[in-house]
């Protein structure tokens, strides 16, 4: 019975602990956000900051390049605005409106 306890104790010691796993992860690159030392998940950010980046709250480069007018999700064309808000509608739309 004492032998079984010893083998169980050895098996437990062989498994890496949570602290050991964190140390291994910390050996790689760390998050690029200020004062954050978590391991990188994607785009140079840790999990928490990556989610914030996706929401547009972190970082200089925004995920999507859309029109800056509220509730407009069209792609930007000129100066942060879509073609409609910049006043540069496509020629086909102008011709159809004139008829």
Report the principal-axis shape. rod-shaped
Number of helices: 5
Can you give the mean pLDDT?
75
**Strand segment tally:** 0
Q: What's the number of structural domains?
A: 2
Helix content class: 40-55%
- Rg for CA atoms: 27 Å
Strand content: under 5%
Question: What profile does the largest beta sheet have?
Answer: none
Question: Nutshell version of this structure?
Answer:
This protein is mainly alpha-helical. It has 5 helices and no strands. The protein folds into 2 domains: 1-63, no CATH class; 65-99, no CATH class.
Walk me through the structure.
This protein has two domains: 1-63, no CATH class; 65-99, no CATH class. The chain is built from five helices and no strands. The protein has helices at residues 2-14, 18-26, 47-54, 83-86, 91-98. The longest helix is centred in the N-terminal third of the chain and has 13 residues, at 2-14. The relative contact order is 0.07.
């Amino acid at each position: 019975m004492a032998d079984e306890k010893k083998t169980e104790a050895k098996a437990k010691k062989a498994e890496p602990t949570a602290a050991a796993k964190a140390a291994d992860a910390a050996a790689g690159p760390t998050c690029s956000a200020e004062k954050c030392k978590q391991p990188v998940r994607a785009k140079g950010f840790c999990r928490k900051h990556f989610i914030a980046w996706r929401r547009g709250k972190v970082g200089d480069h925004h995920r999507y390049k859309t029109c800056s007018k509220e509730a407009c999700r069209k792609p930007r064309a000129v100066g942060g605005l879509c073609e409609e808000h910049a006043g540069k509608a496509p020629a086909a739309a102008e011709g159809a409106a004139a008829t």
